[in-house]
């Protein structure tokens, strides 16, 4: 056991949380995307709404992330990105991601996901061209980071459902609100 | 071993799905929102039943299929079985889960939960909370209807939460 208060690894947290069969999650997400395509008709609008749903999830999920990971304030965006990839993805989705492609001033990087439970059993028909199927993930990251005072833009650079060899999210730091300390005192 | 994700993933996704349909896509049209959420559940149930029954012989009658839902299917999805099954032997089945997971873990709006209630706001708040819970039940009802439809049993499914945290699903098989 790590001493109380020490940051915990993604593996350790994932092993300790309640887990469910990923099939239910994957099929539910797929059914939501399909229903949105029917209800909203425009692929662009579906992309937008998936991102919005993710954003709403992210701003709530960040509390659980901070509480369970014992991650203290990250010193910079570089460290923040590493923590998202190594701890965040692992503790929720059970897969880890890697961070690469940093730009010179350390404000833009790529999070690479080679294994992605959202797309198990998924094949997109031709009618879904332009759909960013996993757009909920970019929203989650954007929402969670906003709650720790980082305004970001998150876009897909590679997508396996579009024939690429991995999922690559480009995360660009737009603005960091310096002195706001978002955690509540009693946590 | 089967792949797993944290339970927070499915909880967050379901909460957000319900809130998106109720507050954004179909705001002020709760019936339409409910139908669409039920349709999502139907797809999920249909696909899950397909997967869970792949290596099984066909069910000999309705009761066998319903028992499969109560035991194997419920265990896969909720890690427990249905606690009580009743039937009138004329095509209606009542499946009771004494502590239905998706309601037990549902975050009720704190403004509803914690207010110091005077009489009339109490009734109003209760009404609102029940309505919110109702929206969360379209999805599991859809799952059951989808699963049974995959097993060749067309039916209608409704839920009764008059006995919280127990939840009863009423399955009416169409003749």
UniProtKB/TrEMBL annotation, chain A:
Organism superkingdom: Eukaryota
SUPFAM superfamilies: Ligand-binding domain in the NO signalling and Golgi transport
Alphabetical list of InterPro entries matching this protein: Bet3, NO_sig/Golgi_transp_ligand-bd, TRAPP_component
The keyword Metal-binding is annotated on this UniProt entry: no
GO cellular component: endoplasmic reticulum; Golgi apparatus; TRAPP complex
Main location: endoplasmic reticulum
Function of the molecule: May play a role in vesicular transport from endoplasmic reticulum to Golgi.
Assembly: Homodimer.
Protein name: Trafficking protein particle complex subunit
Organism: Hevea brasiliensis (Para rubber tree)
Automatic annotation (TrEMBL), chain B:
InterPro entries: NO_sig/Golgi_transp_ligand-bd, TRAPP_component, TRAPPC6/Trs33
Pfam assignment, any one: TRAPP
Entry superkingdom: Eukaryota
SUPFAM superfamilies assigned to the protein according to its UniProt record, in alphabetical order: Ligand-binding domain in the NO signalling and Golgi transport
UniProt family annotation: Belongs to the TRAPP small subunits family. BET3 subfamily.
Name this polypeptide is given: Trafficking protein particle complex subunit 6B
Organism: Hevea brasiliensis (Para rubber tree)
């Amino acid at each position: 056991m790590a001493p109380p208060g020490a940051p915990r690894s993604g593996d350790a947290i994932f092993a300790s949380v309640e887990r469910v069969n990923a099939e239910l999650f994957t099929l539910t997400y797929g059914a939501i995307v399909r229903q949105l395509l029917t209800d909203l008709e425009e692929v662009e609008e579906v992309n937008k709404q998936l991102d919005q749903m993710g954003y709403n999830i992210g701003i709530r999920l960040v509390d659980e992330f901070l509480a369970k990971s014992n991650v203290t304030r990250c010193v910079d965006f570089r460290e923040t990105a590493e923590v998202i990839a190594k701890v965040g993805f692992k503790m929720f989705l059970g897969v880890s991601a890697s961070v690469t492609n940093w730009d010179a001033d350390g404000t833009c990087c790529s999070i690479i996901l080679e294994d992605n439970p959202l797309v198990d059993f998924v094949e997109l028909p031709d009618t879904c061209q332009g759909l960013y199927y996993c757009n909920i993930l970019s929203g989650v990251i954007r929402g969670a980071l906003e709650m720790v005072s980082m305004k970001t833009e998150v876009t897909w650079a590679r997508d396996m459902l579009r024939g690429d060899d991995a999922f690559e999210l480009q995360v660009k730091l737009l603005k960091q609100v310096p002195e706001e300390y978002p955690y509540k005192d009693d946590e | 071993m089967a792949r797993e994700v944290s339970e927070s993933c499915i909880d967050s996704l379901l909460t957000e799905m319900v809130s998106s349909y109720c507050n954004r896509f179909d705001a002020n049209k709760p019936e339409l929102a409910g139908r669409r959420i039920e349709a999502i559940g139907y797809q999920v149930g249909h696909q899950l039943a397909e997967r869970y029954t792949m290596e099984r012989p066909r069910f000999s009658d309705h009761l066998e299929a319903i028992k499969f839902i109560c035991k194997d299917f419920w265990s896969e999805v909720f890690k427990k079985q249905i606690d009580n099954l009743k039937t009138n032997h004329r095509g209606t089945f009542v499946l009771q889960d004494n502590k239905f997971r998706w309601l037990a873990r549902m975050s009720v709006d704190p403004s509803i939960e914690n207010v110091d209630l005077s009489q009339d706001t109490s009734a109003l708040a209760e009404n609102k909370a029940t309505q919110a819970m109702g929206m969360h039940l379209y999805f599991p009802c859809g799952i059951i209807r989808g699963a049974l439809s995959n097993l060749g049993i067309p039916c209608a499914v409704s839920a009764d939460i008059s006995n919280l945290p127990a939840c009863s699903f009423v399955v009416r098989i169409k003749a």
